[in-house]
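Record type: monomer structure entry
Structure origin: computed from sequence
Chain ID: A
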Amino acid sequence: MSSTAEHTFASHESGRLHWWQDGRSLALLSATCFSLKAIFIKLAYAAGPVDAITLLAMRMGLALPAFILLARWGGGSTLSRREWFHLFLLGVTGYYLSSLFDFIGLKYITAGLERLILFTYPCFVLLADALIHGKRVRLATWGALAISYLGLVLAFWHDLMLVNVSQQVWIGSAWVLASCLTYALYYLGSGVMVKRVGSSRLAGYAGAFSSGLVLSQFMLTRSPAILLDLSLPIWGYAIAMALISTVLPIWLAARAVARLGAGQTAALGTIGPALTIFFGWIILSEPFSWVQLLGLVLVVYGISRLQKKS
C-alpha cells in the first residue's frame, strides 16, 4: 500500500473512530445538551413540589466543582481587582439573574416557547451595541429583526391559544424575556473580558460567582433541610441539568470553537430551538402546531441572517 493510500485510510479510520474530534459533531452535541435544559427543568417541576430558587441552587451547587476546575485549567496571568469585579458582574448577569428568571418563567410556559424567546438574545446584543457605540443599524438588519420577532409572535400566539389561563403565558414570557435581556448584557461584557482572561477562565469564574450567589440566596431564604424532602427524580433531573445541560455543553462548545471558530459554532447552534420543541413534544407531550413550526422557521432564519450581517 502506498504512503498516500495509507494516509487516506488512516484519516478515514480516524474520522470514523474519533468522531468526538470533529468540530461539527461537538457543536451539534453541545446544542443538543443545551436544548435539554428546559426539558429537565419542566420534568423536575412535574416530579414534585420544588420552587425555582431551590432547583437552581441544586443545579449550580452541583456544577460548582466543574466551574472551579474550568477556571483553574484556563491558566493565565494574575487578575487585577478591576478584572475580578468585571467577572463578578458577568456572573451576576449571565449565570445568576438570567438563570433565575429563566427557571421562574418555565413555571408558566412551554419549553419550546422559552427556547425561542431566549434564542432572540442576539437581537438585543446588536441593538444595545449600536446604541452604546452610536452605530447605524442597516435596513437589512432591521428586516432580519422583524422576521425573528414575527416568528416569536406566532410561537407566542400558539401557546396563548392552547393554554386555558392566558395570563400564565404573559407572565412566563415576561420572565424569560428578562432572562434574555440579562444574558444579552452578559454577552456584551464577555466580549471584552474573554480577550483578557480567556474563554475557560471567563466561564469558570463567572459560573463560580453565580453559584455562590445562588447558594447564598438559597441559604438566606430557604432551609437546607428541604433538600432532604425532595424526591429522587428531582435530584436526578438536577444532576442532569448540572452535568448534561451546564458543564458538558460549555466544554463541548469551547472545543468546537477551537476547531471551527465562533461563527460556524454559533450557526450550528441554531438547531437548538428546533431540538427543544422536538424534545418537548416527545418527552413532555407539549402540543405542536403548524403555527409554531412556522414561528420556529422564521425565528431561526431571522437570527441566522442577523449573525451573517453582524
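Annotation 1: Residues 57 and 215 are 5 Å apart (CA to CA).
Annotation 2: Residues 50-309 form one domain.
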